[in-house]
Write a structure and sequence with these properties.
Layout lengths: L26 H15 L5 E8 L2 E8 L2 E3 L2 E7 L3 H8 L2 E8 L4 E11 L2 H10 L2 H9 L9 H14 L11 E15 L7 E7 L15 E5 L3
Antiparallel strand pairs: 1-2, 1-5, 3-4, 4-7, 5-6, 6-7, 7-8, 8-9
Helix pairs in contact: 4-5
The structure holds flavin mononucleotide.
């Protein structure tokens, strides 16, 4: 149990993990290893914050990771939502996995790109029918007059697609986050944590293949 909000200054959890030495594997292999470990200890390990930019500054929200490979990290959303529009205007993006139960976080910086339509079709097709309906009727991030309005639109679509497949709406699909920096953080005693940031070996900020060890140089950072 944690301390209540008015005891925040006294709230202190000590981190006691094994030390984390220079990683020898590629960023993709290390992510996959840490993910599989998180899957055993963390509730919803695929929940990640995604931060985007617009003219007023950054904004963050949680989305669910739905795939990872050497090209990057995939999530699905509404292209007309606030984040969808922001990423199409400015692809610069940050992602964070806060795996408290492992005393770990993974921080990612990169560029988002709209996923191939085939990838969005494939994932939409395996979503439950109710989620497909919700994605079809939701105008994500737009104001709505009330729950009743949403429900009546949902019910109308449910009736319309009672005995046929829901087509993937044009406004819904995936983004792939292509990575130019990925940091692995492991909590240690006395707040003297281990941090290894994989930066591009050529010093650039161009996204690269996460499985290519030589494209990346792990750099230890002060905590
Ligand atoms: C655990 C969790 C998982 C979520 N997963 C998604 C997701 O995969 N895609 C999505 O569009 N929104 C997801 N959301 C909702 C977003 O956090 C956010 O409210 C929504 O996408 C609208 O964000 P925007 O107005 O900044 O575009 C999730 C929220 C939570 C708490």
């Amino acid at each position: 149990m944690s301390e209540p909000v008015d005891r925040l200054p006294q709230t202190r959890k000590s981190y006691e993990s094994p030390t984390f030495d220079r990683p020898e594997s590629s960023p993709l292999a290390l992510f996959r290893q840490w993910y599989d470990e998180a899957a055993e200890h963390v509730r919803e390990p695929n929940a990640m914050t995604v931060s985007t930019l617009d003219e007023w500054g950054p904004s963050s929200r949680i989305v669910l990771l739905k795939g990872v490979d050497e090209t990057g990290f995939m999530f699905f959303t509404d292209y007309d939502s606030s984040k969808g529009r922001q990423l199409q205007d400015d692809p610069r993006v940050a992602v964070n996995f806060p795996w408290h139960d492992m005393e770990r976080q993974i921080r990612i910086r990169g560029l988002a790109e709209v996923a191939a339509p085939e990838d969005s079709d494939a994932y939409f097709a395996v979503r439950p029918h109710g989620s497909q309906i919700a994605a079809s009727v939701s105008k994500q991030s737009q104001p709505v007059s009330g729950r009743e309005q949403m429900q009546s639109e949902y019910d109308a679509a449910l009736a319309e697609y009672a005995d046929r497949d829901v087509p993937r709406p044009d406004h819904w699909g995936g983004f792939r986050v292509r990575v130019f920096e990925i940091e692995f953080w492991q909590g240690q005693k006395n707040r003297f944590h281990d941090r290894w940031a994989f930066c591009r070996s050529d010093g650039s900020h161009e996204p690269a293949d996460l499985s290519q060890t030589e494209a990346w140089t792990p750099v230890r950072l002060y905590p």
